[in-house]
Backbone:
């Protein structure tokens, strides 16, 4: 049986985070047989992200930031993307009023601790639009998060 990383050798992914975070990623990927599928890149996503990808995933990133910084992050991604590339933001959906008290408590903690906050789908749609994305929609998951999808326009 071929290692997972060898099944689709034409597919590549870039794992980008701060240099001290990615320092230990390559040995883990190599041990899992995935080392040939990933580029591990240290850097600052507020400055630049790898260019030319088909999809960009921001997992639990945007909730740490206020709206202005979210737009800044999204614009950095948009500048790196070709028209039609997908942006997938994995975040907890704040939901409707009083629908999920736990998400409201987390939202309050985010505001106090980081200046960020949880958002509703409509708020992600507005952020995406300002940053140059066409909002595709939200897909809920079974883990309490949702995937907010935009396309580079």
Residues:
């Amino acid at each position: 049986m071929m290692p997972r990383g060898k099944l689709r050798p034409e597919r590549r992914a870039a794992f980008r985070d701060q240099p001290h975070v990615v320092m230990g990623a390559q040995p883990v990927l190599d041990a899992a047989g995935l080392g040939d599928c990933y580029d591990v890149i240290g850097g600052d996503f507020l400055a630049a992200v790898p260019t030319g990808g088909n999809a960009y995933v921001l997992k639990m990133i945007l909730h740490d930031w206020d709206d202005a910084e979210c737009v800044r992050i999204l614009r950095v991604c948009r500048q790196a993307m070709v028209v039609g590339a997908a942006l997938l933001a994995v975040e907890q959906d704040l939901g409707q009023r009083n629908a999920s008290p736990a998400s409201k408590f987390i939202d309050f903690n985010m505001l106090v601790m980081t200046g960020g906050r949880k958002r509703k789908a409509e708020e992600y749609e507005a952020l995406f639009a300002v940053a140059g994305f066409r909002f595709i929609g939200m897909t809920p998951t079974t883990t309490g998060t949702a995937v907010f999808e935009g396309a580079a326009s």
